[in-house]
Amino acid sequence: MSSARADTTPWLLAAPGALLFTALVVVPLALTLMLSFHVYDAATGVKDAYTLAHYTAILSDSYFLNIFWRTLRLAALTTLICAAIGAPEAYILSRMREPWRSVFLLAIIGPLLVSVVVRTFGWSMLLGPAGLVNEAFRALGLGTVKILYTETAVVIALVHVMLPFMVIPVWTSLQKLDPMVEAAAWTLGASRFTALRRVVMPQVTMGLLSGSLVVFGLSASAFAIPALLGGRRLKMAATLVYDEYMHELNWPLGAAIAILVLVINLVIMLAYQRVVEARAKRTLG
Amino acid sequence: MGFLTLDGLTRLYGDVAAVSDVNLSVAKGEFISLLGPSGCGKTTTLQMIAGLVEPTSGRITLDGRDITHEKPDRRGLGIVFQSYALFPHMTVAQNVSFGLEMRKVSRPEREVRVKQALALVQLSSLADRYPRQLSGGQRQRVAVARALVIDPPVLLLDEPLSNLDAKLREEMQFELRGIQQRVGTTTIMVTHDQSEALSMSDRVVVMEQGRIMQVDAPYRLYESPATPFISSFVGKMNRLSGVWRHGGVEIGGRVLACEGAGFSDGAAAVLAIRPEKINLTAPGAGVLDGRVKGRFFLGSAWFFTVETPAGLIGVSLPNSGEEPAREGDQIGLDWSRASARAAEPDGVQPA
């Protein structure tokens, strides 16, 4: 009796979470996957027949491939910039004293507290032809620069909102680092820069890795920022899916794009995780 | 002129002096301990020598060179940190090799010197392990090897034994001292453990509230502590207050003979005597009678607390293999006149 209970208890405890996950993630995903194989007819809509046509259409059309490529490129660029800015920022933050640390931490997390639509419109006002940035350029005699509705605008806004996802994990791994370890490197003859590169950096690899994964994943699936700052012509994966669903009404094609994006994202992230984490695990334990 | 000298070294944090006016001259090859309770400024002093804390005023010279404002990476001192501060992502050999790499030592020479350093601390077989795979004592030895491999003019040890368990701490005391004597490196160790300081050092520097109170060889420090604080911080000390009269300290109408130059009859005085300088005798046969209040067995010794008319007195007896007096027994306490000395009540030892 008691052993039977011991067997079922873990299942019962896991059940609520499993049910929620099934209902909210697995079922919609399965439905999307099934939908992506349905035949679509522009006149009559979704039919009950199955086909691989959507996938072959996407993979053979340079229009879609270009958008996929742009999505990955911008997500990777955002991740790179976030790492380049976020890691030093986290290091400086970890060396700050109260109350400055709290103030700056709030400034970094700030973007997350503002609605994505409001924040993005804020950027479009700043970056537009009559925005503050271009006014400044004109005042300096640099002329008007087209920023809004370019990839630059999308990357700027993505970096802005993704930075906390990079800073916080790096900061956390810095917190775990004995500050005397860096001092030990100095006393052994390492300059400040060498100590950072040889001693501090290797130990924040894990933080940098997990931050990169989150930033890359969120950037690659971002919707509001490319929709509002990329304009109608500059599409990314999420805006493309939206268009297929809402404008073309070709739901199966949209579903196929969504599934492909998911698979590509998953493959890239898992591969990345395996490579870097294996290295970090071996040395950090 | 010493090999390493501290001249009026002071460090203020706001208005509070963590270290004030520390003067010290360390000879080449000497093993010096900075001893004191936590917050006495000993670690700050060490960090100023290491270059990790900037002195507010004062001068540090090493072999005649002023290093007061030199960056830590230019001083070339070897430091063993309290937490050992090993590089967790490097193997033992890589940890030890790091300082040599920074000095641009060629790879073949580096390998030879790393091997020698690891042999010195008896860790040759663990060269490829990572710090997390080592025990506390092994980590400590890696830290020592890493600090010594660069042939530092001065080795600084910051509470090197405080993270080890009692048994290991005792072993490492002798081992560290042995390594230091073999290598001959001038060494400064910070510790709050008086037995460590006494057993390892050539000279002990006692610090209290940022100031140096006494600098002496361990034996002299123990036998003639300069202040009551030192007398009770270094070893145990019975302190019985009374009045100086007839060449002794009078307490409760009884004169207890002791050393004490410069006291005039009737002056307030404190009789100071170490617990191990007192013998137990039959009642009436000693200087003072009393009743055993508590008895503690310490393995190599017995420790008694004895209630006497002069106050509670601690007595330490070596364990001779027989069971001594029990709690509640009436006993006598005896000591030689030379082993007890009179001190002024405010604590200042007469000159």
Most extensive interface, chain pair and sizes = A-B, 20 and 28 residues
The name of the CATH topology of chain A is: MetI-like fold
Average pLDDT of chain A = 88
- The count of β-strands of chain A is 2
The main pleated sheet of chain A reads as:
2 strands, antiparallel
Write down the secondary-structure element order of chain B. EEEHEEHEHHHEHEHEEHHEEEEEEEEEE
Alpha-carbon distance between the two ends of chain B: 27 Å
Q: Main sheet of chain B?
A: 6 strands, mixed
Radius of gyration of chain B from CA coordinates: 24 Å
Individual helix count of chain A: 13
Indicate the overall shape of chain A: globular
Oligomer: heterodimer
Estimate what percentage of residues of chain B fall within beta strands. 25-35%
Describe the secondary structure blueprint for this structure.
The complex is a heterodimer of chains A (285) and B (351).
Chain A: H1 2-35, E1 38-41, E2 45-50, H2 53-60, H3 62-95, H4 100-113, H5 116-127, H6 132-139, H7 151-175, H8 179-187, H9 192-203, H10 205-220, H11 224-229, H12 237-246, H13 251-284
Antiparallel strand pairs in A: 1-2
Chain B: E1 4-13, E2 16-26, E3 31-35, H1 42-50, E4 57-62, E5 65-66, H2 72-75, E6 78-80, H3 92-102, H4 107-120, H5 136-148, E7 154-158, H6 166-183, E8 186-191, H7 194-200, E9 203-208, E10 211-216, H8 218-223, H9 228-233, E11 238-245, E12 248-251, E13 254-257, E14 268-273, E15 279-281, E16 288-297, E17 301-308, E18 311-318, E19 330-334, E20 341-343
Parallel strand pairs in B: 3-8, 3-9, 6-7, 7-8
Antiparallel strand pairs in B: 1-2, 1-4, 4-5, 9-10, 11-12, 11-14, 12-13, 14-20, 15-19, 16-17, 16-19, 17-18
Helix pairs in contact in B: 3-4, 3-5, 4-5
